[in-house]
Amino acid sequence: MTGGNAPLDTKHGQYLGPWGNFGSQPQKGVTTYSISANRQRPLAGTLNAAVFNTWRRFRAQALYVIPPMLIAYTAMTWAVEKNEYYNSKPGRMHDAEAAAEATGGGTVRG
């Protein structure tokens, strides 16, 4: 079919052509414009857009993130304070009194 080491379409056995031109007819009437690389501004407005886009995204997600974080922080603060109280001398005495009341004045084995 073709000579040399030309790439073949294994399904149809036809030459595919170079990359970007897979054996089709060249297009006519297509105008291409370009600008010099040193005239382009690829990062124009990036910093300004980043600030406002970040603020917009933060504001949109704040009500989904902040309330659960506050609830979790409050619960952890309460738990840490309660744990510190239970592991202190007054907390242990309170626990012993509560155990004595629960058993009707008897001793608690543990």
Describe this structure in words.
Helices cover 50% and strands 0% of the residues. The relative contact order is 0.04. It is mainly α and 110 residues long.
Structural class: mainly alpha
Total DSSP helices: 2
Shape: elongated
Biggest sheet: strands, sense, closure? none
Low-confidence stretches: none
Please count the beta strands (DSSP E, at least 2 residues each). 0
Gyration radius over CA: 38 Å
Beta-strand content estimate? under 5%
Classify the helix fraction into a percent range. 40-55%
* Oligomeric grouping of the chains: single chain
- Average pLDDT across residues? 81
Secondary-structure element string = HH
* Euclidean distance between termini CA atoms: 92 Å
Summarize the structure.
This protein is mainly alpha-helical.
Topology of helices and strands:
Layout (H helix, E strand, L loop, with lengths): L45 H41 L2 H14 L8
Keywords, separated by commas or semicolons:
110 residues, mainly alpha, 0% strand
